[in-house]
Structures are given as structure tokens and as C-alpha cells.
């Protein structure tokens, strides 16, 4: 298990997280783009940092940098990034061995 960043336990984050959920009407914004409605009734909703917290700590509490995603979309987003890195690594290895 990854250790939870203490930021996610802060009072400020909890407050802003709630505000983002309300702004997005407690609905996953990615699902909405696909024409699906995913709300708390059918999924776990999480608030995502568009520019990642570790890269842009100054945008941690900037609502323009935050969006509501369901757990599935959130995993997809982070999974895809890992996948791209792996692909790139494989490509580099191939060049190296060639
Ligand atoms: Zn979703």
C-alpha cells in the first residue's frame, strides 16, 4: 500500500474537494463527456488533480485544476500513464539492443 499523502487528510483539501463535487454535480466529468451519467448512486467519486499534485503542488487547491472522476475513470487515467511509460521503456530497450 502506498502511503497517503498528508495533503489528502488536510482540512483545506476536504473543503475544496467537497466544493468541486458540488460544482460537478456529483457526477463523473469523463463519463458525462461520453454521454453517461455516473453519480454517487452507482460509483465511488474521486476528485482528480488535472495537473498532478506532485508536479504542481501550487495548484493543489486550485479548483480549475480539479475535476470529479469516478473510480473507474480515475484508475484508467493513472493506468494509462503507466502504460505509456512502459511502452516507451520497451521501445528504448529495443533500440538499445538493436
Ligand atoms: Zn467515470
Automatic annotation (TrEMBL):
It holds the Pfam family HNH. Residues 15-75 form the HNH nuclease domain. This is Putative HNH nuclease YajD. InterPro entries: HNH (IPR002711), HNH_nuc (IPR003615). GO terms for cellular component: cytosol. The keyword Nuclease applies. Keywords: Endonuclease, Hydrolase, Nuclease. Belongs to the HNH nuclease family. It comes from the Bacteria. GO terms for molecular function: endonuclease activity; hydrolase activity; nucleic acid binding; zinc ion binding. PANTHER family: HNH NUCLEASE YAJD-RELATED (PTHR41286). The keyword Nuclease applies.
Amino acid at each position: 500500500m502506498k502511503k497517503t499523502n498528508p495533503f489528502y487528510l488536510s482540512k483545506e483539501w476536504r473543503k475544496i474537494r467537497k466544493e468541486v463535487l458540488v460544482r460537478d454535480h456529483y457526477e463523473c466529468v469523463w463519463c458525462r463527456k461520453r454521454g453517461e451519467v455516473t453519480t454517487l448512486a452507482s460509483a465511488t467519486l474521486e476528485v482528480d488533480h488535472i495537473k498532478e499534485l506532485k508536479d504542481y503542488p501550487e495548484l493543489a487547491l486550485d479548483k480549475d485544476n480539479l475535476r470529479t472522476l469516478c473510480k473507474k475513470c480515475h484508475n484508467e487515467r493513472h493506468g494509462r500513464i503507466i502504460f505509456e511509460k512502459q511502452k516507451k521503456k520497451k521501445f528504448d530497450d529495443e533500440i538499445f539492443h538493436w
